Every structure is written in C-alpha cells, then in structure tokens.
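quick one
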Amino acid sequence: MTCSRCAYKWAIRKRGDIPKNCPKCRSTLWMKEYHNYTCARCEHTWGTANDSPQRCPKCHTSKWNVPAVQRPAKSETVVSKLDPALKERIYGLYYDGKGGITIAIEMGLAFGDVMDALCEKFPGDNINL
Ligand SMILES: [Zn+2]
Ligand SMILES: [Zn+2]
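structure w/ zinc ion:
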C-alpha cells in the first residue's frame, strides 16, 4: 500500500484489510489519487486528492485553471512606416509560419519595423517572434 498523501509505504497483513487511515499521516484520502495543481493566476502550486478543485487555496479564484487573458501591451493603432511592397513580403513570410525575428533577419530589416508592420496587419494579436 502506498499513501498518495505522504508517499508512506506499508504492507497489509491480511487480504481485505485495507485501513481507513494512512498509518503515518492519518489521512483518510490516502487511497485516492493525489493531484498537483498550479494556479494560472497566482502560480501557487498545491496538492489535493480532489480531482476538480473549485478554487485556488491561495488567491481563491475559481478560474485558477483558466490562464489570464493576455492583453496587448499597447492598444493604440500601430502604423508601419515601411513600404507597402515590403509589408506584403513580411506578411507573406509570416503566413509561411516565420516569426518577426526570422523575417527581420531574412529581409535585412530592423526587428521593430517588422513588428510594427505585423502589429498593423494583426492588431491585438500576439505576434510570433
Ligand atoms: Zn500518509
Ligand atoms: Zn491562485
């Protein structure tokens, strides 16, 4: 037998003699699977035998398993100063799955200019770097 709470191991003497409590930590939940959770809001990590905790024990959010929505740092509209033909090439590379850094290197452009062009095209998106 192994306690899922304290990892204590012990042998049962006779068959069917399954104790109610762990001999070491006295937990009645020792047979249940023990889960470790991390709160997406406050990054608190805790262990519980409950397989669907309602709230984070630290910050008490009920949305502990829902990552916080990432808002773009800047909400103002970005207007790229690049040539439209250059921008089209940037978007083409971006659609090919390349990130901002790769595009800047391949096209010999400043990373900031590439990101401005991508932010202008995809406002509010998290641009792949
Ligand atoms: Zn135990
Ligand atoms: Zn939390």
